[in-house]
Amino acid sequence: MKGALLVAGTTSDAGKSVVVAGLCRALARRGVKVAPFKAQNMSNNSVVTLDGGEIGRAQALQAAACGLEPSVRFNPVLLKPGSDRRSQLVVRGKAVGTVGARDYFRHRQRLREIVAAELESLRSEFDVVICEGAGSPAEINLRDTDLANMGLAQASELPVLVVGDIDRGGVLAHLFGTLAVLEPEDQRLISGFVINKFRGDVELLRPGLDQLTELTGRPTLGVLPFSADLWIDAEDSLGAVADAAVGRSAPPVGAEWLTVAAVRLPRVSNSTDIEALACEPGVSVRWVAEPSRLADADLVVLPGSKATVSDLEWLRRSGIAKVLRERAAIGRPILGICGGYQMLGKHITDRVESDAGVVNGLGLLDLEVEFDAAKVLRQVTGVGVGRAATEGIPVSGYEIHHGRVTHSGDPAWLEVDGAEEGSVRRAVWGTHLHGLLESDDFRRAWLRTVADRAGRFDYLVAEHVSVADVRSAQLDLLADLVDDHLDMARVEELITSGAPADLPVLGARLRTPVPGGTPT
């Protein structure tokens, strides 16, 4: 098998990322040498690659589905939103500046060349490349600058599958409309549809699928069922949702549960850090965005942020900062990761991200942080330190941050690459390390300490949970869904042969103006 395919979506969060991961895993299990590719991603969930670059978390997950280490080749352009109007531009893993929608246009030709070269290189090295679109190809106002949807498909002659989420409602209209608004040269590459998150009897949907085929000339190549066992968060699927559960926690080993409240910051980044906690039996994890939801939590987690100073101010406005100070005063556990760690300190000096200068932190740690224009991007290994249950236990993780610790008067929590890292004060912990809690032995020992501090003496830590194994099982579940519910024979034919030559063009008359400016 040799070729490539683009998976587009009717909307953001339609299921593109998980369908690509499922296809990658299904093909890899067949012995196909396969790689993922997303030309341009917009996400604050990112990971550090072995070569010290930065890519979207979804592409790292898709790489794992293929049995590969993450690489900047799989996501050459990454936009990390810091506000509603400005994003950090990351090219081939390195931040090159901050852009808005208008000035981003100036970069498009250079980025097109980079994207084309990376995809060509991957196609020469791998049997199959499964590409993921961005947002929706129906965003026709952005077509001229498109790098990741039909612009990529046309440049590389990629057949395109369009995924729609039936859970949102109106999926048949979404699929039809996505095709109909495209120009003829783009339509000729749309080769089929996939419906995601279906609940119920698929035979009740069948007449609608048949009519969709009659109207468009394209088949629906699969209906993926909703699976309660699938909770993997491949992208920024949090959206504006708060008070949402994370994962599918198994019952506790002992007599008590541990409850975790993860604060849903407006510009949260690397939200997947808390997945490791959700893997543990008896640990219930929820995203929360208002202070009353923290009251009964045994542990509160402040995750990373792409807009640390702005999100710190939001903590104060929301009342969550006051609750955190009250918790710290009585010794109730709090964990800060990366931006969340920086917020726990005394002061943040930021003339890089927000240009706010010196800003007061929450003061829960004796910590001073100053932002530097150069971003720290590295994978690290180390051990727990201090007189604690985690002392001497190996850890690994990765760092993505502009903030440098200029002073820490609290004991270190970790030693990584020969240097002290993180801080501990009573029941407040902080670290710059993303992925730290995926170190299974360290996580278990630390959770035992958290349970004791929270008074959950009958909470017992499971001794068998491996986060890597849980993620691998999730990828296998995705591949099983793809194998069982997609017409893989036809998908493989598209990969090897490209889009069929006889696909009809729709909707030309919809784009023809009539007097008065109303489309017919």
UniProtKB/TrEMBL annotation:
Domain CobB/CobQ-like glutamine amidotransferase: 259-441
Molecular-function annotations in GO: ABC-type vitamin B12 transporter activity; catalytic activity
Annotated active site: 338 (nucleophile), 434
One of the protein's GO biological processes: cobalamin biosynthetic process
InterPro entries: Class_I_gatase-like, CobQ/CobB/MinD/ParA_Nub-bd_dom, CobQ_GATase1, CobQ_N, CobQ_synth, GATase_3, P-loop_NTPase
SUPFAM superfamilies linked to this entry: Class I glutamine amidotransferase-like, P-loop containing nucleoside triphosphate hydrolases
Keywords assigned by UniProt, alphabetized: Cobalamin biosynthesis, Glutamine amidotransferase
Coiled-coil region list: none
Domain CobQ/CobB/MinD/ParA nucleotide binding, chain residue ranges per copy: 6-231
Biochemical pathway: Cofactor biosynthesis; adenosylcobalamin biosynthesis
Keyword Nucleotide-binding: no
HAMAP family documented for this protein: CobQ
Protein family (similarity comment): Belongs to the CobB/CobQ family. CobQ subfamily.
Role noted for this protein: Catalyzes amidations at positions B, D, E, and G on adenosylcobyrinic A,C-diamide. NH(2) groups are provided by glutamine, and one molecule of ATP is hydrogenolyzed for each amidation.
Protein name, entry field: Cobyric acid synthase
Native organism: Nocardia bovistercoris
Origin organism lineage: Bacteria, Bacillati, Actinomycetota, Actinomycetes, Mycobacteriales
